[in-house]
Amino acid sequence: MQENPMKTLNKLTAAGEKITMLTCYDATFAKLMELEGVDVILVGDSLGMVLQGADNTLNVSMHHMTYHTKSVAAGAPNTLIVADMPLGSYEHDNEAALKNAQWLIKSGASMVKFEGGGDRVETARYLVSHGVPVCAHLGFTPQSVNQLGGYKIQGKTAVSAQKIINDAKAMDQAGVSMLVLEMVPAALAEKITNLIKVPTIGIGAGVHCSGQVLVLQDLLGIYTGPANKSPNDFKSPRFVRNFLQENNSIQEAIAAYITAVKDQSFPAQEHSY
Ligand code: KIV
Question: Does 34 qualify as catalytic in the annotation?
């Protein structure tokens, strides 16, 4: 019988082994990821960009998320699946957040992820107290792209870094199981990783996080920006590495990503801030 994926995650954390996470939205890729041994699959609301062609994640709905979560769960029944809560599904009140989180769990996720600190700490505490494992997401939070003024690194000033540290500690104390840190200076991510109990998963957050996440289409080098814009106007973010360029198949590219995260050759300094 397969081990419970949460148990596997706890073992990796206890052993200090780096955790590999990739985004996925369908059964075929999910099956490949499970066969190659990806530790955690994230059904990210990045699907609004990479599947739907939008230039942000703001129009993703619960129906989109549950549909893709079911597909991923069908392809990877033995892997820890984290599903994103889309904009508008968790901010208004805790009851609605719990109902939507449970809908994602019933669709096949083992954990839900949502963005932000501050008031969201109480949402995390509420979901956890009702038996829903939570992954927090701090630093650059794509659902707040308009408020943040674009795709920008967060935590560069002492004040903003301290706010992220405070939110990370509060989320840890609220009982979350994991914390994604997106686009923050590597030194800040390292400090947070050493301060909190739960594993940190970085994307553009340096090599000292407990694990790494990439969007699958970025790992394969096939994302060229919003559907209505020319690929010539698109520049990949600094934290992206095209693993397919260096390998002969999608399977090999995923395997190379796992190896590079585990041996800490990815992310290199050139992928970090
Ligand atoms: O939606 C997503 O893919 C994410 C990752 C970028 C962390 O949240």
Answer: no
Query: What is the rounded radius of gyration, in angstroms, for the C-alpha atoms of the chain?
Result: 17
Helices (H) and strands (E) in the chain, counts: 11, 8
Q: Cα–Cα distances in Å, from 17 out to 20, 194, 261?
A: 10, 15, 10
Q: Whose CA is nearest to atom 4 of ligand 1?
A: 44
Is-contact 196 168, C-beta < 8 A? yes
List the domains of the chain with CATH numbers: 5-271 (3.20.20.60)
For residue 159 the two structure tokens come to 């004040």
| pLDDT tens readout for residues 41-89 | 999 999 999 999 999 999 999 999 999 999 999 999 999 999 999 999 9
Rounded-to-integer distance, Cα 31 and Cα 73, Å? 9
Retrieve residue 253's tokens.
């590219």
